[in-house]
Every structure is written in C-alpha cells, then in structure tokens.
Amino acid sequence: MLDDFTFIAKIAMKSSVAVCFAALGEIYAERSGVLNLGVEGMMLMGALAGVAAGSATGNPVLATLGGMAVGGLLALLHAFFAITLRVNQTLSGLALTILGAGLSSFLGRAYIGKAALRMKVYVVPYLSDIPVIGDIFFKQTPLVYLAYILVPLGAWLLFRTRLGLKIRAVGEDAASADAVGVNVAAIRYGCTVFGGCMAGLGGAYLSLAYTPGWKENMTMGQGWIAIAMVIFATWYPLRAFLGALLFGGLTALQFFFQATGVELIPINVLRMFPYLATILVLIVVMRLDRTQGRGAAPAALGVPFSREG
Q1: Distant-in-sequence, close-in-space partners of 241: CB < 8 Å, separation ≥ 6
Q2: By residue range, what is the domain housing residue 171?
Q3: Coil, strand, or helix at residue 212?
Q4: Cα 25 vs. chain centroid, distance in angstroms?
Q5: Which residues make Cβ contacts (< 8 Å) with residue 63, sequence separation at least 6?
Q6: What whole-number distance in Å separates Cα of residue 286 and Cα of residue 77?
Q7: So where does this one cross the membrane (predicted)?
Q8: What is the pLDDT of residue 92?
C-alpha cells in the first residue's frame, strides 16, 4: 500500500512540472494585463528546441535554455502584436498556438524516433533518505528542483516587491500606473516574454526529462490545462502549483491503472481521465470562488493601452 502511494506521488510530481512552469509564466503575463492563449504552441516549440539543442550540444543546460529562448521569442512576437499594434489578444494567442503546432510538426520530423538527450536524476544527499518524502521529492531531475524554487520566488516577487506592485498595477489600471511613471509597455513586454520563456521551459522539461525525445503534439493539451490552472489559481502562483499537482496526481493514477493491469476501463478513457477530471474540479472551484466573491481577473486583462486613449 505504501509502495503504491509512493509510486503514484512520485509520478504525480513529475507529471505536474510542465504545467506548473507554464502556469507560473502565464500568471505573470495576465497579471500585467496581457492574455496569451499561445501557451500550447510555445510549449511545443520549446520541447522541439530542447531536443534540437540537446542533440547539437549534448549539454542539458544549453538544451533547456534553447527551449526557453524559443518560447520567449514566440512570446515576443505575441507581445509585438498585442502591445505595440494593439490587436485582439485572443486572436493573436490562438494564431501563436496554431503557428507553434504547425511549425513544430514540420520541423520535428527529423527528430521523430531518434535518441535524444536525457536529463539525469539527481539524488539530494540526506533529504533523499527521509522515508517516503525522500523518494517523492528528492530523487528527481534538476528541473523539478527548479520548480521548487521558482514557485515561491515567483509569489514573493509578485506580492512582496516593488516590481510586483508595478506589474499588478499595470494589470489593474494601466492608465493610472502610467500616470505615476510606470512604463506600461516595458512591464507588459517583460511579463509576456517571461511567460513565453516559462512555457518553453515547460516544453523542454517534457522532451528532456519527462519523456525524453520528440513526438508530434507531445504536450497533449497541457498548455490549455496551464491556462485553466491560472484561472483556478485566481492568478496566485502557490495555488497554481497545487493545481498542477492535482493534474499530475490524476495523470499518475492513469499510469497506475495501466501498470496494475486494470482492464475494466478502456485505455482511451484512461488517457482522457486527467484532463476531464481536472476540468471538472476547476469548474467546481470556480463556482465556489464566485459564491464567495473571489477569483476576479485583473481588471485590465486583454485591454490594450495607449496614451492617446
């Protein structure tokens, strides 16, 4: 029984990281007032860039940075259209997802079925010896440990620093923030690109650590789950981490059912289970938040800003 719990919890942690990274980045973008529905496309391109950079260099750090860079560049493209040209942010984000899916599918053909760089598991001395907890949390790849750092750091930066105050001010009332000297465009550009880098990091995690190698559409909708997690988290990083763990836990149960040979549930239903169950929980949580007067989006989310009005 304890071994089964440890197995499920360890897989849950591994399965939650990509969604966690992408959701954290999207929280920053949306807190600044920019809606980016291109997370799925950026994750796909980040995954492909990670594989390509890993094959070219053999260095996991450079491979990870490659995934982040490509995600950031795509987000910069979205920022240009959404912030500078002030086009419809929903359409721009959807176009980015279509671009990322199509481009990764085309460019990724050369990497299908080929051996890829595999990120090693690092065991944390002493902490890994703690019963149960050590196996779950401290026998992971470096990117999982990075998630342990980035989530609380992201929360602290957003709610305990002057920069975080500026980000939230721009997302709530860009005109007022501009009136007191905040550079609205710079804040929004920075947060949007950061969101893209985090989505690319999530994609690179999938192709370098979670399931090393390139497979077409390997994110399987995790970008959309990340966007849903932002709403579930009411734009708070720590709550997004819990939501990602929920998705990871449901994914782990799917693997557990397959590993234990449960044949009463068709395999296709098992694969759908984490997504359907996560969406159901999100709906319930959102309804509870609304009845309690919580969960309002940033007031200026999706609203272009111009000094000319």
Answers
A1: 16, 20, 24, 147, 151
A2: 15-220
A3: coil
A4: 6
A5: 50, 51, 53, 54, 57, 117, 204, 208
A6: 31
A7: 7-28, 34-54, 61-85, 91-112, 143-159, 224-257, 269-288
A8: 95
Note whether 74 and 41 are within 8 A (CB). yes
User: Is position 236 within any domain?
Assistant: no
233 within domain boundaries: no
Strand pairing category for 139-140 and 122-123: antiparallel
Alpha helices, DSSP H only, in 32-132? 39-57, 60-79, 89-107
Q: How many structural domains is the chain composed of? A: 1
Contact status, residue 23 vs residue 240, Cβ threshold 8 Å: yes
Count of Cβ atoms closer than 10 Å to residue 1 Cβ? 5
Residue 67 backbone phi and psi in degrees, to 5? -60, -40
Name the percent of the chain lying above pLDDT 90: 71
Residue 39 binned pLDDT confidence (cut-offs 50, 70, 90): very high
> Whole-model pTM?
0.93
- Compute the C-alpha angle 167/81/71, nearest 5°: 70
Residue 229 within any structural domain of the chain: no
Asked if 33 contacts 174 with a C-beta cutoff of 8 angstroms, the reply is: yes
Structure tokens at 58: 């053999």
CB 140 within 8 A of CB 133: no
Q: Is residue 78 part of a domain?
A: yes
Q: Is 70 exceeded by the pLDDT of residue 286?
A: no
Query: Distance between CA atoms of 76 and 83, rounded to whole angstroms?
Result: 10
